[in-house]
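[Automated response] Your request has been received and processed.

Submitted sequence:
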Amino acid sequence: MLTSNIKLPFRQIQLPLPEIALLLAAFFWGTSYGITKEALLYTGVLAFIVIRFGLTSILLTPIFIKEQRMGLAKDWKFAIPTGGILLCIFLAEIYGIFHTTASKAAFLISLCVLITPFVEAITDRKLPSTAIVLFALLSLFGVFLLTTQSSGQPTLNTLSLEFLFLDLNKGDYSILLAALLRACMVVTTKSLLKGKTLSALSTTSIQANVVTLGALFIFIATDNPIEQLFPTNLSFWVATFYLAIFCTIFALFAQNFGVKHTTPSRVSLLTGSEPAFGAIFAYYWLGESLNTIQMIGGACILLATIMATLRK
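Generated structure:
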């Protein structure tokens, strides 16, 4: 495993870089919900995807060209399918959230944590490890508690009833599709890019290009107002630059970097801590409060990610 040695006066600590990068990606993704909601006040969904990933493409193009000349991106064609999956993920997530509640969407999208080990098991033709399954179940249980929005102070009995009688609408099914696609994304990336000459940044660049072109094609085909592509509000561009640099470039780089140096199951598990970081951001930045059950859920998620990070 790739590590970074930090020398201290008394001892040497090894930090697992892939896991740390994935946790940082989860943190940035956790902050992206509120910021994206603000950005969407000034433009449409498809236009926002075009602008966000178009900006990402522009920022990464010089790096891709440099690595292409150095022979570090000669296998770029293998990243194209992952870009197509990423486009479908964003479309499913954003359109799904319009037809369901945010709490239910957060729970359903986090099912990718549970789905990934089994998708990986199918492709590798072997059973997922017991530890990964237990960590995933703990994280999934934590997400369920964290995203509970029951009136009053919920109990575990009421939570069980809510789960059993969960009413899925078209938005919920769209989020479920996104969760499945997220699982397929990391497994496909691991499979297609294994042994290929393609850096994580070049992979992110190709994916951003595919998402931009795909979203732009859909935008034009569905006759959306062209003005949506040119918002003039400064707050929109501040939010978009933040999302492009931290929540897209860095986060996707971290995911692609993590896939190369750890297992797809651990990638999904660590990025599955996203709802916990989102709750912390909402609490301190937006002033939202958490009840006891939700705080227990957040603790479960963070506990699962810590154990996965420390486990060799």
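Summary generated for your ticket: Residues 1-14, 163-167 have pLDDT under 50 and may be disordered. The first helix runs from residue 17 to 39.
If you did not submit this request, please reply to this message.
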